[in-house]
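Sample intake sheet
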Amino acid sequence: MSTEKSVSKETFKRARRVTAADVAKAAGVSRSAVSRAFTPGAYLDSAKRVAILATAKRLGYRPNALAASLQGNRTDLVAVIAGDMANHYDAAFVGALVAELNAHQKWPLVLSGSDELTEQSIRSVLRYPLDAVIVRGGSLPASVFQDCARLSIPVISSGRVVDAPATDCVACRNKDGAELAVRTLLARGRTCFGYIGGPASWSSETERLAGVRHALAEAGLELCALTQSDYTFDGGRAAAEAMFATSDIDALFCANDAMALGALSAARNQNRAVPDQLSIIGFDDIALGAWPDFDLTTIRNPLDKTIAEILRLLEARLKDPSKDSETVMIDPELIARGTH
């Protein structure tokens, strides 16, 4: 048996975690000396530091970040309340956010943003010494933001502007993005517009629908067909099939790419030529939409810019917890492909 495997077995046989007191005893030093050995910039004789670190490595000791937080230090723990992970954009967002947090030496605790996530579950996470909470879309009760404020835990809301203490926000200009989609289709010569939206209670849906209506009104038009679905491929396909059965639209804007891809599938199944007979535009710019089989024209909700702003706001808030709340609005972009 190798030494590495033997060490591993011995490590897992231990009944408890190795403590700083264990290291101090084995190294023949004080408990405070062990603490200084692991504190950057703390004064300690160099030979003693080397001996303590060697002893700690041999025993398998690592400083307890949660215990350190009780002394007023940061834990670098950040709770991430995810969006709907079945949504391609939210899943990509959370994956990229976690990677960036790790790159900045922050350690995320990720909670599902599904409907099953309860207020009590969120409050349970708030028992941990968090540096911050990042919320992706959706809606949280005002009481959760109040709890965070009472605990001095800053919040960053992504995808929705929230007016709450110590809360910074990053959101896409959804209305502008929807207007951009409609004007692009108007320039293509389209006159009969359909719109497939998401859940009516979502702020992003309210903003995107408002953008559609505004851009059409400027052109002296109204929606020919309107329905709302669930932001999924299947939901978009079913909504499009129902719309095609009652309306002869020549332009279709969908509130997200998954529904737009479902609508594209429905159009192809009914032999509606895209884009010759029907133009389709989505929203978000998920990776799947760029695949050659889909080649979906879409409105990009810039993921990289959003995450960069979240990290900037997080660092700024940790540096100055009492600073005024800040809201950053991200400009959408037209990604022209083959469906319009």
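Comment: The longest strand covers residues 167-172. The mean pLDDT is 88.
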